[in-house]
Design goal:
Blueprint (H helix, E strand, L loop, with lengths): L5 E12 L2 E13 L4 E5 L6 H8 L7 E6 L2 E2 L5 H11 E5 L10 H11 L4 H14 L15 H13 L5 E5 L7 H16 L3 E5 L3 H4 L4 E6 L2 E7 L2
Parallel strand pairs: 3-8, 3-9, 6-7, 7-8
Antiparallel strand pairs: 1-2, 1-4, 4-5, 9-10
Helix pairs in contact: 3-4, 3-5, 4-5, 5-6
Length: 229
């Protein structure tokens, strides 16, 4: 019996603001299997960003357990979490988060430095993923020489470079026009078909429609968990 890639049990996350405690996540149970394509949705204040930060090991829960790829990450310290993030999770952000005065190739190769790969291996793998996202002819360009869609492709290549267990995308089309958004979502579809687990955070129904499963949050709880036909 295969274990889920992600197994969350009774996850709670509280934040203390002055004298008040804000209960953002109120006991969430969630399983995501390897190779799934999931969209997380919910209105502002529903807890979806907090849940994404926990899934991405950017934050730890107040209580509950989070098993990622067989490891209990809910009890880990910052340096252990950083290692898990670098190995297991590829992040794609709305604002691309690229280094401005650095070529596309060096931006993509960056996570491999932290993972301890030598220069030749880094560049070989970075060229491979840039070709996968149709940017082989742009690898020497800096971000300001690229369109928004091309910058997001660089960010996606960077997320894939360490062959992570999960690609975690936070509003990945938020800064793109609708034509470019469709191209980027097709690319996520291709990445998923290659066997990657993709988790997408979005507030747009038309973007969530690309995923195979949609989890909706409201008031810190899962309101619904449905499979897209």
């Amino acid at each position: 019996m295969a274990h889920p890639l992600i197994q969350i049990t009774q996850i709670k996350r509280d934040f203390i603001l002055g004298n008040e405690t804000v209960y953002v996540l109120k006991g969430i149970d969630l399983e995501i299997n390897k190779g799934e394509y999931v969209a997380l949705m919910g209105p502002s204040g529903s807890g979806k960003s907090t849940l994404m930060n926990l899934l991405g090991c950017l934050d730890t829960p107040t209580s509950g357990t989070y098993i990622l790829n067989g490891k209990d990450v809910s009890q880990m310290h910052d340096d252990e979490l950083a290692e898990i993030r670098n190995k297991e999770i590829g992040f794609v952000f709305q604002t691309f988060n690229l280094l401005p005065r650095t070529t596309a190739l060096d931006n993509v190769a960056l996570p491999m430095i932290y993972a301890g790969y030598g220069k030749a291996d880094r560049y070989e793998r970075a060229k491979e993923v840039l070709a996968q996202v149709n940017l082989a002819d742009r690898m020497d360009h800096q971000p300001n020489q690229l369109s928004g869609g091309q910058r997001q492709r660089v960010a996606i290549a960077r997320a894939m470079v360490n062959k992570p267990s999960i690609i975690l995308a936070d509003e990945p089309t938020g800064n793109l026009d609708s034509k470019t958004s469709i191209e980027i979502m097709k690319l996520f579809g291709d990445i998923h078909v290659q066997g990657n687990t993709v988790i997408l955070v979005t507030h747009e129904e038309e973007i969530a429609a690309y995923a195979h499963r949609v989890i909706r949050l409201r008031d810190g709880m899962i309101e619904s968990d449905t499979v897209n036909k």
